[in-house]
Amino acid sequence: MDLAAFKLSLAKSAPPKGLALALQALWWDAKGDWAKGHDLINDEPGETAAWAHAYLHRKEGDLGNASYWYGQAGKPVAKVSLEDEWAAIAASLLKQEGA
User: Fold this and answer.
1) How many folded domains does the chain comprise?
2) How confident is the model at residue 97 (pLDDT cuts 50, 70, 90)?
3) Which residues, at least 6 apart from 43, have a Cβ–Cβ distance to it below 8 Å?
4) Can you list the alpha helix ranges (DSSP code H) found in 21-79?
5) What values do phi and psi take at 3, rounded to 5?
6) Residue 13: inside a domain
7) Does residue 54 belong to any structural domain of this protein?
């Protein structure tokens, strides 16, 4: 799945089957359910989950918490728009997962 197909899937009521939790979290966030996205990855280990977690806290406005999660992900704190960051994370994770 590429980013365009991932975005098209937002018209459905549930994320595509087989997506990693970080991608599911981004999917729910894009659907307007930040809390559901956050709940999915809140206790999920790994750098990909941490990257999505960082984005979600940045979107929430909790920059201190976001900074911590960027560090856990091994990523610099994002300076681009939230929309651009969401797309960059989703595209990268889709490519990594081969989803």
Assistant:
1) 1
2) confident
3) none
4) 21-30, 34-41, 47-60, 63-73
5) -60, -40
6) no
7) yes
Domain extent, residue 62, equals 20-97
66, amino acid identity: A
Q: What does the radius of gyration of the chain's CA atoms come to, in whole angstroms?
A: 12
pLDDT in tens, 26-57: 999 999 999 999 999 999 999 999 999 999 99
**Could you tell me the pTM of the whole model?**
0.94
How many helices and strands (H and E) does the chain possess? 6, 0
CA 80, 82, 84, 89 torsion-angle sign? positive
d(CA 30, CA 83): 9
Scan for tokens 């981004």, then name that residue. 26
